[in-house]
Design goal:
The protein is mostly helical. It has one domain. The protein is about 80% helix and about 0% strand. The protein is built from 5 helices and no strands. The termini are far apart. The model has no long low-confidence stretch (mean pLDDT about 90).
């Protein structure tokens, strides 16, 4: 079970690495405006979170033989799974994949929340220090 979980994490994290690279590139491209950069990063991270959650919700209905996890598991020759019926293997893989996708979605959601909070703090600082405060005259 730990081997399946490790392989599932590896496949998810590989995809998240590319998604994170895309988010970082967009944020870097918008770095001329810190607030815009943080907002874009938060929204893109929320989109990644949503994609992971949808993947977790649909995992039990997917054919696991068409996933990267199945290919990697077949390449390792996992001995305990050879004795199990194929339907039971598919159910086990779907359960593990669902669990790991939701775990990673939670972390991506926390990242989106942190970027959103940072954007709110920057917006508040801009408001207070750029003449938006009510106590200033003129």
């Amino acid at each position: 079970m730990d081997e399946i979980r490790a392989l599932a994490d590896m496949t998810i994290r590989r995809a998240l690495g590319f998604a994170g690279l895309g988010v970082c590139v967009v944020m870097l491209a918008l770095s001329f405006d810190l607030l815009l950069s943080l907002r874009a990063g938060g929204q893109l991270s929320a989109l990644v979170c949503l994609a992971l959650a949808v993947g977790g919700w649909t995992a039990p209905r997917r054919d696991m033989r068409r996933t990267e996890l199945w290919t990697l598991l077949a390449g390792t020759g996992a001995a305990p799974l050879r004795r199990m019926p194929r339907a039971q293997i598919q159910m086990l893989l779907a359960q593990v994949l669902r669990e790991r996708l939701f775990w990673h979605a939670e972390r991506a959601g926390l990242t989106a929340l942190a970027l959103g909070a940072a954007a709110a703090l920057v917006a508040l600082a801009e408001f207070l220090f750029a003449g938006g405060g009510a106590g200033q005259a003129g």
